[in-house]
Amino acid sequence: MRRFSFLSLFFLLRLLLLWIISASGEEGFCGFPPSSLLEGSGTSTKPLYWKVTNPTLSPSHLQDLPGFTRSVYRRDHAVITPESHVFGPLPDWDNTLGAYLVSPAMGSHFTMYLARMQEGSRSAVPAQDVERFVFVVQGSTTFLNASGTSHKLHVDSYAYVPANSEHSFKCDETATLVVIERRYAVLKNHYPEQILGSTDKQPLLETPGEVFQLRKLLPTSASYDFNIHIMDFQPGEYLNVKEVHYNQHGLLLLQGQGIYRLGDSWYPVQAGDAIWMAPFVPQWYAALGKTRSRYLLYKDVNRDPLWHVKF
Question: Which Gene3D superfamilies match (predicted)?
Fold first, then answer.
């Protein structure tokens, strides 16, 4: 018994030493680069959302551990981390690879995926009655609509395209897009319009009782059956409300790191991680680290929950 206790203590001390080395070494805590190299630090020359397309896959001392992943799938939530992404050709897109992060196979009523566009690539048109939202996280792409009008979209820019609207995204070099699609929930006498915009052009909105900064990228009118929120947290800030609601969420962490509670589980998350939240799953976030946390959040709005029920 004494021998077992001594060995157990030895291994615990060894794990603690590995953690201290990881936390204090050149890579920074859990494999993160030192804060001077992170986006938003004021000294970085890297693109705004470079950690989304160049993520830390795991702590340095776990990268060679066979089978290691932080990805988790549960009945009412999922955390999909970059080391488990599977890219393949996107159907009907030219020269583009995609990785689905959220899909109806989970239980969602929308899809969220990454599209890696290469030189000379072009998007496909969504299925009948499907609306599309695109957000640029790396490079740039050109949006073209049915009238032939084109618009260049750079990092932090986005486009909303109503269902059954002819359009395409073209890429002369390379770009990475976050794409969200869902079947439009028709509301009589309400018709959404095409939206082109940029995050930094959207005003900060009031968040009573909360400390985070909030921007909404789409109009809040009834014509739109979902919205996209950009939420910013400084280190140490957290959600005051422990949310439980009927809305579904799809989330992509664009910058920073923190802890996300989903149901009875607590997950360390970092830039590049995606989350799906089913209706009524308890959810809460706290920002950690030394730099700002920013995430993009899908939320269905402006429709009775019975709209999704087939009688």
Answer: Jelly Rolls
Contact assessment for residue 63 and residue 55, using Cβ atoms and an 8 Å cutoff:
no
Q: How far apart are CA 180 and CA 200, in angstroms?
A: 20
* Closest residue by Cα to residue 290 from 61, 42, 71, 48: 42
User: What are the pLDDT digits (tens) for 159-216?
Assistant: 999 999 999 999 999 999 999 999 999 999 999 999 999 999 999 999 999 999 999 9
pLDDT in tens, 47-77: 999 999 998 887 676 766 788 899 999 999 9
CA distance 154 to 91: 24
Region for residue 139 given its phi and psi (left: phi exceeds 0; alpha: psi -120 to 50; beta: otherwise): left
Question: Is the entire prediction scored with pTM above 0.90?
Answer: no
Contact present, 90 and 154 (Cβ < 8 Å): no
DSSP code, position 87: -
CA–CA dist 89, 100 (Å, integer) = 11
Reported as a pLDDT band with limits 50, 70 and 90, residue 25 is very low
Asked if residues 112 and 182 have their Cβ atoms less than 8 Å apart, the reply is no
Q: Taking Cα atoms as reference points, which of 270, 267, 236 lies closest to residue 33? A: 270
To the question of domain 35-302 being in CATH 3.40.30.10, the answer is no
Q: How do the residues of the chain divide into helix, strand and coil, expressed in percent and rounded to 5?
A: 15, 40, 45
Angle at 83 between CA 290 and CA 260, to 5 degrees: 45
DSSP helix/strand/coil, 151: strand
Tokens of residue 75, six digits: 């009945």
**157 vs 141: CA distance, rounded Å:** 10
